[in-house]
Amino acid sequence: MHLERKIGFYEKYVKRLLDIMFALVFMVVFCWLYVLIALLVRVKLGSPVLFCQPRPGIIGESGETLFDMYKFRSMTDERDENGNLLPDEQRLTKIGEVLRSTSLDELPQLFCVLKGTMSLVGPRPQLVRDMLFMTDEQRMRHTARPGITGLAQVRGRNAVTWEEKLEWDLRYIESVSFWNDAKILFETVAVVFRRNGITDGEAATSLNLGTALWKAGKITLTQYYSGLVSSEKLIAEYETEKAQHSRGRKKAAGGCAGECVEE
């Protein structure tokens, strides 16, 4: 699938520079906050402190690319008698609920901003399986770098429907500008402090797109499971490629070390 859209001067040349500058300043000024949250998570949930998960990134020549998105952990790893993870709402901790409702669990994503896999403002990176249930029009959202916050988040967070959320994302990519990004950032702060868009009992979990479509009768159970299988395959391929790349780097580093010893 090949998707394209016209990208303006700001998005092409300025936005990335501002992302880096803001991320660096924020991380330096609030380094104490990172340490505090990390310690709380370590004490309450143990190790690891960070949660890492593949998410769809900006679209490339062969389709959407995947990248590792980071969050502070908010759930336990509790399992049932069969070894399966318990439902999210049963594993969510009190500290995790606070981190999610205040969006503090998203702070590690500033590292993703520095790496270039995310932006401060853009369509929120959804789950890989969500991507597979989107229409071609909805997947146009992936022509922009995914963001820590976006237009959909200041218009309702998890209180809006999937259709509304994806529509807000499409509206954003139609008019990417400095002023729109600045407005979204300021509105994000207000939304978080007022806890807008968080419904009772849903401060942390919500239906994924496939489940929502199936429950609404818009896809069959066969289509639903097919999407899940396809998403697992994409993730497995990504993890395999990442592991091979990591081994290649270690091998190259080992070779260099050997040459240095000989010299």
From TrEMBL:
GO terms for molecular function: phosphotransferase activity, for other substituted phosphate groups. The keyword Transport does not apply. Keywords: Membrane, Transferase, Transmembrane, Transmembrane helix. The keyword RNA-binding does not apply. InterPro entries: Bact_transf. The chain crosses the membrane at residues 20-41. Residues 15-193 form the Bacterial sugar transferase domain. Belongs to the bacterial sugar transferase family. This is Sugar transferase involved in LPS biosynthesis (Colanic, teichoic acid).
